Amino acid sequence: MTRIGLIGGTFDPFHNGHRRLVEAVLISGQVDRVILMVAGQQPHKTKVKVSAAGYRFEMALRGVADLSQVEVSDLEIRRPGRSYTVDTLALLRGQLAPEDEIVLVYGSDVLFDLTTWRSPEIILSSADVLIAHRGGIGQQAAKDRAEQLRRDFSARIDFLNAPMLELSATEVREAAVRGELDTGKIPERVAALITRHDLYGYDEELARVDPAVWHQLADYECQVRPLLNHKRLLHSLNVMRYAMHLANKHGVSVEKAGIAGLMHDCAKCLEAHTVLHYARLAGDPELLEPALAHGPAGAWLARHQFGIEDPEILRAIHYHTTGSGDMSVLDLLIYVADKVEPARTYHNLEAIREAAETDLVQAMRLCLVEVEAFLERENKPSHPYAQAALEKLGIPTHHPPAPDKQETRLTLEQ
Ligand code: ATP
Question: What's the predicted TM-score (pTM) here?
Answer without folding.
Answer: 0.93
